[in-house]
Design a protein that fits this description.
The complex is a heterodimer of chains A (about 240) and B (about 190). Helix content of chain A is about 40%, strand content about 20%. In chain A, the strands form 2 sheets. In chain A, strands 6-3-2-1-9 form a 5-stranded antiparallel sheet, with helices on one face. In chain A, strands 5-4-7-8 form a 4-stranded antiparallel sheet. Chain A is globular. The chains are: A alpha+beta (about 240), B mainly alpha (about 190). The interface between A and B is large, with 51 and 78 residues.
């Protein structure tokens, strides 16, 4: 494993639970973009998991199922298609070719077209992800009117933080904000209309975690947690 | 078959439910909740102590289980181990949030369940638990107790330092050394 011994121990203490608040937050953020660290944490969780066998069940104060189900609602139709395709994405990754993720991403784009009834040409889609099997947001762009939507797929909820979308291209210089994006609903973003279509098509799209309401400086506060580039969604 | 989920038939049932939950089957999710909520509440309430807080953490954990179900990989562990890790992480996030440390809750009269109940005598013990306990046995008793308090009660380094009367850096060094020794022992 290419993980440093220090990071393996950070993963171990994260899994055990003894990191302090700042260390814990740092490791939680890093595991979003560092697959080695994420796998090390999972490995440690599994090493320690047998200990939980000794924990006796305990009666909860009441039945929470209704409350939990109420929190799940909203996106079932679209999610059905996306989850199905997420599995295909994982299958492609299992075949160990980068091209596979692109093929599956195309499949996601086609499914999105179906569920959102997008019929216009010049449709593009970008899967913003931390790794090939974990898409977090799906961006769709219609180049004709430069409309953009962002759909959360499996973005982890951020308590007291906002996700912010950025367009990054060498021709633009610094990253430009496309605004704060909703963690649970589709965000339709009109800001793309001021950009050259060629740049819209070639740019990298990135998501950062920011203070509530977005970056106070107008520039990303940290490294992107999810990134992706547009690909065409062919008929 | 996965020994860490208890009896193998229960583990297979949970695995079947997880597969259905991953395909967005609400009925399977309800069944998964019914089958596992008492276990996960037991995990969470030991860490956060307060039953009302534990109820909130439990709800968050199941929302996350629903959201992440497609990521579950049976080849890497049992459904219950995966769900337990999610519930523990939610509970630990709650406990580590900046606020007055509940050292008082930790300092009096509590012992890790492994020492209360002797899991080696349990009919549900798995080979994995037996292997882990053998490796824990090789640790110095005080260090073993520190690891178990951290796992079962979510004890922070500060709380452990106070309880065992050692500086925080010493606790950190011990924790890391103990975890390294456990890893080496488990892979040998």
């Amino acid at each position: 494993m290419s993980l440093s011994p220090e990071d393996d121990l950070n993963a171990a203490e994260y899994a055990l639970g003894t990191l302090d608040a700042a260390e814990r937050a740092e490791v939680a953020a890093r595991r979003q973009r560092e697959a080695d660290l994420d796998q090390a944490i999972v490995g440690w969780e599994l090493r320690l998991a047998p200990l939980a066998e000794a924990i006796p069940p305990a009666a909860s104060p009441r039945d929470f199922l209704g409350d939990i189900e109420a929190r799940l609602g909203g996106t079932s139709l679209t999610r059905d298609a996306i989850v199905d395709l997420t599995k295909r994405l994982r299958f492609w990754r299992a075949s160990a070719v980068a091209a596979g993720a692109i093929a599956a991403a195309l499949a996601i784009g086609i499914a999105l077209q179906e569920t959102t009834r997008l019929s216009a040409p010049h449709q593009f889609v970008a899967i913003l992800q931390k790794s090939a099997d974990q898409p977090a947001f799906v961006v769709t762009v219609n180049l004709d009117d430069r409309s953009l939507t962002v759909r959360p797929v499996a973005a982890p909820p951020q308590a007291d933080k906002s996700y912010e979308l950025w367009i990054i291209d060498a021709k633009l210089g610094a990253p430009r904000s496309l605004g704060v994006i909703d963690q649970s609903n589709v965000t339709a973003n009109p800001k793309l209309q001021s950009y050259d279509p060629a740049i819209v098509q070639s740019a990298t799209y990135a998501v950062t975690i920011e203070p509530p309401g977005g970056s106070p400086t107008g520039q990303p506060s940290g490294a992107p947690v999810f990134v992706g580039k547009l690909i065409p969604t062919g008929p | 078959m996965d020994p860490s989920s208890g009896s193998s038939s229960a583990g297979e049932d949970l695995a079947a439910l997880m597969t259905r939950v991953a395909s967005r089957d609400r009925a399977a999710f309800a069944a998964l909740y019914r089958a596992t909520q008492a276990k996960l509440f037991g995990v969470v309430v030991r860490i956060v102590s307060r039953r009302d807080v534990a109820g909130e953490v439990l709800q968050e954990a199941y929302v996350r289980i629903w959201e992440k179900a497609a990521d579950f990989d049976l080849t890497k562990g049992s459904p219950l181990a995966w769900m337990t890790a999610i519930a523990r992480n939610r509970a630990l996030d709650e406990m580590r949030r900046p606020k007055p440390l509940a050292i008082g809750d930790l300092s009096e009269g509590f012992d890790p369940p492994a020492e209360e109940t002797d899991p080696l005598a349990s009919r549900d013990r798995s080979e994995r638990l037996a292997a882990l306990l053998r490796c824990l046995d090789a640790l110095d008793p005080e260090k073993r107790k520190i690891v178990l308090l951290a796992y079962y009660r979510g004890a922070s380094r500060e709380a452990l330092a106070k309880k065992f009367d050692h500086p925080v850096p010493t606790i950190k060094t011990w924790l890391r050394r103990s975890l390294s020794e456990l890893k080496d022992c488990l892979s040998s």
